[in-house]
Amino acid sequence: MFKKILIANRGEIAIRIIRACKEMGIATVAIYSEADRNSLHVRMADEAICVGPAPNKESYLNMPNIISAAIVTGAEAIHPGYAYFSEQASFAEACEACNIKFIGPKASAIELMGDKARAKETAAKAGVPVIPGSKGTIESEQAAFRTASKMGYPVRLKATAGGGGRGIRVVNSEDELAGALRIATAEAEAAFGNGLLYMEKEIVDPRHIEIQLIGDEHGNYIHLGERECSIQRRNQKLIEEAPSCAVTPAIRKKMGEAAIKLARAVGYANAGTVEYLLDKRGDFYFMEMNTRVQVEHPVTEAVTGVDILKEQILVASGAKLSISQKDIKIHGHAIECRIIAEDPSNNFAPSVGTIELMAAPGGMGVRIDTHIYGGYQIPPYYDAMLAKLIVWGIDRKDAIARMKRCLSEYEIKGIKTNISYQLEIISNPYFEKGELSTSFIPKRMNTEG
Fold this sequence. Notes:
This protein is an alpha+beta fold and 449 residues long. The protein has helices at residues 11-23, 40-44, 63-73, 89-97, 107-114, 116-125, 141-151, 174-192, 249-265, 297-304, 308-316, 396-409, 419-427, 429-432, 440-444, and strands at residues 4-7, 27-33, 47-52, 77-79, 101-102, 155-159, 168-171, 197-201, 207-215, 221-233, 236-242, 270-278, 284-290, 333-340, 342-343, 349-350, 353-354, 357-359, 366-370, 377-378, 385-393, 411-413.
């Protein structure tokens, strides 16, 4: 087992990793930017080292400085968390070259699954159902028109190097295609430095369902059931829950087995998530694989009792999985709301400033993953998520009631947040009935933001 791990991240996920390490008796090294000097993850780690100025590219995306920090502090491994370097093959390769263990899959798996077009081809070859779409990337506007005409509208344009909902456009007719191509290409180029796109048949009003899996370096795999991630705004997840009220045991088994087939096909080891679209008939289609721990992993932990972060660290150290598939049971229901520093009354404009007061909810079945505290000044440089509020109940109705109570209790003063907006969603009768889809926000909340 590792003696010391460097966390190449910030915020709540850095704290989540530090806590797992402490319980495993592993020393931790936090990295921070000059703007994050007073952040909670810096206080909680055993050591902390500044890796650069406030902007991401000069600090949390400064590969030489982060690798140097690991070497200088004697860290044997680096946990990337999510975002930043978590899905960059070049970072995993740099770790390996410096004899530092990257807590994640091999660079080859990251690279293959990070290219959405190649990932889809790989999934199809592994026998995983895929959405009909272009063969590889779209090479020209003429090719895009031919492919769309063959598939039939509506279609979806997606950045091949995409993530976080960027570089995506739904095209409902031929008249919209040329303009959507230009916009999606420009957005993908700006976000990822790669403007290549591919095209898929648009599945109307699907559910977004994902399967959490973990594999070790000895060829053992398990899946931990599904998460429902259909509540999204601008393709960004807002609320996640486990299990999905639309997934039967038979569908869960098929989804899980398909996810493991794909993991085996690419020699995947560590935690990962296979994302699907589920249509109204109960058919599911591969969308992408995230080669890292997900923001929403706590809802899976809540219903399975499996500590995903500890399993990540264990398998990265060369150990076998501590559990088998027969050990995985789903107990109760869990819901997560992402608490974001934004103003719903002002077109969801980002909110920055100092947190004057924070009163967090508590009680049975309540978990909050956060990096904020009273007096904390929110820097304007980073993701606006402040916290994840997770509740567990004996069933979905119980979990919804508990989430309503918690959101009503939650107070953050000094800045604007989306707490009241989350309460509106949870209280929506269609949400309560479980009538969910990725178009829930624009159709049921009358706002896209």
